[in-house]
Write a structure and sequence with these properties.
The protein is mainly β and 317 residues long. The chain is built from 6 helices and 22 strands. It has helices at 3-13, 83-86, 142-145, 219-224, 278-282, 295-298; strands at 54-59, 62-69, 76-79, 89-97, 102-115, 118-128, 138-140, 148-153, 161-164, 171-172, 175-176, 179-181, 194-199, 202-208, 216-217, 228-229, 239-243, 249-262, 265-274, 290-293, 303-307, 312-316. Strands 1-2-7-3-6-5 form a 6-stranded mixed beta barrel. A 6-stranded mixed beta barrel has the order 13-14-20-15-19-18. The chain has a 5-stranded antiparallel beta sheet with strand order 9-8-21-22-12, with no helix packed on it.
Length: 317
């Protein structure tokens, strides 16, 4: 696929449904979740209705449950209505940093948690709500995913899965596979996945967030990259709301940035939401050009492999 072909697909879909664009992020020792509804999902589906990659999870031997794979969450989250049913024990509280702000949430500890090659005993998780988790049973954060190999399928019949880290060929069936490299998170997921990016020649810190529906940027990046206002049928005024799991919301501006480079991946144009979000202040990036790269970018590909031990992202068209 050419860069121009890829960018046209992104601009056409990046703000789809973005009037309420759920998203948040956890600092070390914290947890986060996102916003929506429930019940109509099956455990064998690959993505949820906002196109996040999901995997089947078993807790205390029960399941499969439907969890989102979230590379920007340092703590995992389980829906509160499952706690009693699965026999998960209370485990104090956690500080939860959302894209909007900070709050204190209950925590629980499961005797066992497994998905694919992942098998964890005494797994501590934050407690979220069904609306906050966009209808899913929970999400897996970097606290549990560190050193795993994530195969994320955004289309087709195959399932997303969690596997052991291993080398991957540069080519598949003769096709060169774009890949982006990053510094592997250390210390059990206390750090986030950050890749170096360029936007119109401006160096940018990009946090890879497989749990976010729409890419977010801060005002510093909007100014440095000369971002332009973008209007869609979903947000005719050019404004949108970014909502946290608690129902708190912040106003964001729909914009377009151009000439976006992630190593070998080049996007001519990308629709984003811009705002002075808590997440950027939390990371000390409020005055530095930065973005939270969501599944509007990753979901352009049929399959994305994220090897957290080797520090590489591989994309299959």
């Amino acid at each position: 696929m050419t860069a121009d072909g890829l960018s046209r697909r992104l601009v056409g879909g990046a703000l789809l449904g973005a009037l309420v664009a759920p998203g948040s992020l956890a600092a070390p020792g914290a947890a986060w979740s996102q916003e929506t509804q429930i019940d109509e999902f099956r455990a064998d589906q690959t993505t949820d209705r906002v196109h996040r990659s999901t995997v089947p999870v078993f807790i205390n031997g029960q399941g499969p449950l439907r969890f989102a794979v979230d590379t920007a969450a340092s703590a995992s989250v389980v829906a509160g209505d499952l706690v009693e049913r699965l026999g998960i024990a209370p485990a104090g509280e956690l500080d939860m940093h959302t894209v909007i702000g900070l709050e204190r949430v209950p925590a629980v500890r499961a005797r066992t948690l497994s998905s694919g090659s992942l098998s964890v005993g005494e797994a501590r998780m934050a407690v979220g709500t069904r609306p906050g988790l966009i209808g899913l049973d929970g999400l897996l954060g970097l606290d549990l995913l560190a050193e795993q190999r994530l195969i994320m399928r955004f289309r087709g019949q195959g399932r997303s899965s969690i596997n052991r880290s291993r080398p991957d060929p540069d080519q598949f069936l003769g096709v060169v596979r774009p890949r982006v490299r990053f510094q592997p998170p250390q210390g059990g997921g206390a750090e986030l996945m950050v890749v170096n990016a360029l936007v119109r020649g401006q160096a940018v810190q990009a946090v890879v967030d497989t749990g976010a529906q729409v890419t977010l940027i801060n005002p510093a990046l909007a100014e440095a990259a000369s971002a332009r206002p973008f209007q869609s049928r979903a947000a005719s005024s050019g404004n949108a709301l970014v909502q946290s799991p608690t129902g708190r919301a912040a106003l964001a501006q729909a914009m377009v940035v151009s000439a976006v480079h992630f190593d070998e991946l080049v996007l001519d144009r990308l629709a984003v939401l811009m705002g002075d979000f808590h997440i950027f202040r939390l990371l000390g990036l409020e005055n530095t050009p930065a973005m939270l790269m969501g599944v509007d970018v990753l979901g352009v590909f049929e399959r994305v492999v994220i090897d957290l031990k080797r520090g590489e992202i591989i994309m299959d068209v």
